[in-house]
Amino acid sequence: MTGNGRSDLPPAAAGFDAVVVGAGFAGLYMLHRLRRLGLSARVFDKAAGVGGTWYWNRYPGARCDIESLAYSYSFDPDLEREWNWTERYPAQPEILRYLNHVADRFDLRRDIALSTTVRGATFDEAADRWRVETDPGGEVTARFLILATGCLSDAQIPAIPGLDTFAGDRYHTAHWPHEGVDFTGTRVAVIGTGSSGIQSIPVIAAEAAHTYVLQRTPNFSLPANNAPLDPAVLRATQENYADLRRRIRQSPLYFPVEYDDRSALAVPEEEFRARIEDHWERGGLGIIGNYADQLLSEAAAERVATVVREKIRAKIDDPAIAERLIPTSYPFGAKRLCIDTGYYETFNRPDVTLVDLRETPITAIVPEGIATTGGTIEVEAIVFATGFDAMTGAILRIPIAGRGGLTIQEKWAGGPVTYLGLAVGGFPNLFTITGPGSPSVFSNMVPSIEQHVDWIADCLTYLAEHDLATIEAEESAEKTWTDQVHALGEMTIFPKGNSWYMGRNIEGKPDGLMPFAGGTVLYRQICDGVAAGGYQGFTLS
Ligand code: NAP
C-alpha cells in the first residue's frame, strides 16, 4: 500500500473486461463509467498516486491555465456542488486534492493498481483479448484496452553532450521532488520558456541567489490575473452549473469564449485595440478564440501580436532584454500561448539573467554548469523545463502489438494514424482517450476527456447490446480522417510554429499537426454521427 493509493492489488487470475492505462482525469472517469456499465476493470499507473499530469507536475508555480470552474468534471451534480475551488486558476496541489477526492468519493481505488507499469500489450486474435504485461503483477488479460496515458506525460530532457557530468542538482519540471526544492542561496539555470518555464521562473527567481533563464524561442504570455475565487461566483455557479456546462459545450475550445465572427483585419483600429487590451487586462486564454480568422491568417494573427508585443514591452525595464523576450519568428497562437504571474517583470530583477540561446547556443553541460558559445554559466542547479514528447510519446513507450503482430510503433512510424483520435486500425478493442487526431490539447482537456469516455462507454454498450466481440477502425476511414486532420492543419497558422503540436520539439519525430483543428463542437457532432450511424468506419464482428 502506498501513501494515497494502492499498489498491492492482486491481479485477477482470469482477466477483466477492460484494462485502463493511466489514473489521471481520463483514467479515473473511465473507470467510473466502466463500473456503471457493470464491467470489471483494472487501472494501472506507474505513479504512486492518482492524478496523472497533476501527480507529476509539482514544479514551483504549477497551475492550470484554464479556470477552475471549467476545469472540472461535469458528470456528477453532487460532486459539482460539494467541491469548493478556492482560486480562479487552480494550483497543482488543489487539482491533485480534487482528483484524490474523486477517487475516494466514487470508491475507485479498489480497482487501481499504482506503482505499476504497463510493459506491453498484445492482441490475442484467437481469444479476441488483450494480453497486458504489468510490472509488478505479470500478465492480465482484457477484452478492451483503453489508453488514458495523457497528451503531455512523456517528459523530455534534451540529449545535450555532457549531461551526466554536471556536479550540481538536476530537475525536470514534470518530475519534481515531492518534498519540494529549496533554492535559497543557490545559482539556478532554467532551460526552457514554455508554459512550465514561464510559470516556474518567477517563483524560482524569488528564492534563488541568481537565476539564469536560457531561452531558445520566446513565447507569448498573457497575465493570469489569478485571484481567490469570489465565494459569490462559486455559489452562483454551483447553484446553476448547467448553464456554465452548456456554454462550455457550445464553445469550440470547451471553455467559454467571446467569439467575434469578423476577420481580425476588418475591425476598426480603436475597437480592435480595446478588445485586445481588454483580454490582456482580464488575462487567460480567451484571446485565442477571438476573431474568426485569427488562427487561419498570418496577417490576422500579426495584428493581434502587434498589440500584445506592446503590452509585453511595457513590462520590461531594459529595452534590449524586452526585444529578446518578444516573439517575432512565428504567428501569435502558432505555439501554445502561455499564461503567467509576473513572468516578464522577473527580468527586471538584478538577480535574473536572460541568456538568449539564439545568440549563444548551448554547447555542453559541464561539471560547473552550462557551456555556451558565450561562456560557461556556473550554477548549482539546472531545471529542465524542456517539455514532452507530446500526444504520441506516452503511447509509443508501450510496445503494443495488434493483429498479425503489427506494432503501434511500426504503424505510426510516419506519424500517428487514427480514426477520430479514438481508435487505430489493426488494433481491435483499443481506444485512445484524447488521442492524436482529436481536439484534445486544442481544448479544455477535462470536457474533451469526458466526451471521449462517454463515447467509449456508449460504444461498449452498443457492442454488448448487439452481441459483438470486437470493434476496429477501418483503414480507409482512418486514412480519410488522418488526411482531414492534416488538411485542416494546413489551413491554419500552426505549421508556422516549431511547436510540440507539430512534433517539432523532438528530433526525428515525424512532422505534422497532431490535434484536430476543427474545434470541439464540430468534432463532437462527427463522433456522435459515427455512433448514431452504427459506428460507421468501424468493422464490428
Ligand atoms: P514546452 O512548451 O514544449 O516548452 C519547452 C521549452 O524548452 C521551450 O521553450 C523549448 O524551446 C525549450 N527547449 C526544449 N529543448 C531545448 C534545448 N535542447 N535547448 C534549449 N531549449 C530547449 O513544454 P512545457 O513548458 O512543459 O509545456 C508543454 C505544454 O504543457 C504546454 O504547452 C501546455 O499545453 C501544457 N502546460 C500547461 C500548463 C498550464 O495549464 N498552466 C502548465 C505547463 C504546461 P523551443 O520553443 O525553442 O523548442
Keywords:
single chain; 541 residues; alpha/beta; 8-stranded mixed sheet; 16 helices; globular
Rounded to the nearest angstrom, the radius of gyration is 23 Å
pLDDT averaged residue by residue: 96
* Uncertain residue segments: 1-7
* Overall helicity: 25-40%
Our estimate of the beta-strand percent is 15-25%
Tell me how many strands there are: 20
Structural class: alpha/beta
Largest sheet: 8 strands, mixed
- From the N-terminal CA to the C-terminal CA, the straight-line distance is 41 Å
Number of helices: 16
What does this structure look like?
With 541 residues, this protein is α/β, with parallel strands linked by helices. The chain contains 16 helices and 20 strands. The protein has helices spanning 25-36, 53-56, 77-82, 92-105, 195-207, 231-239, 241-250, 269-282, 298-313, 319-325, 343-346, 393-396, 408-411, 445-465, 475-490, 520-532; strands at residues 16-21, 41-44, 112-113, 117-124, 129-135, 138-147, 169-172, 187-191, 210-215, 221-223, 338-340, 352-356, 362-366, 369-372, 375-378, 381-384, 400-401, 430-432, 471-473, 538-540. Strands 1, 2, 3, 4, 5, 6, 17 and 18 form an eight-stranded mixed β-sheet that branches. The chain has a five-stranded parallel β-sheet with strand order 7-16-8-9-12, covered by helices on one side. It has a three-stranded antiparallel β-sheet with strand order 13-14-15, with no helix packed on it. Strand 8 (187-191), helix 5 and strand 9 form a beta-alpha-beta unit. It starts with 15 loop residues before the first strand and ends with a strand. Mean pLDDT is 96; it is low at 1-7. Bound molecules: NADP nicotinamide-adenine-dinucleotide phosphate. NADP nicotinamide-adenine-dinucleotide phosphate binds at residues 63-65, 152, 158, 173, 191-197, 199, 216-217, 336, 357, 362, 385-388, 441, 498, 500, 505.
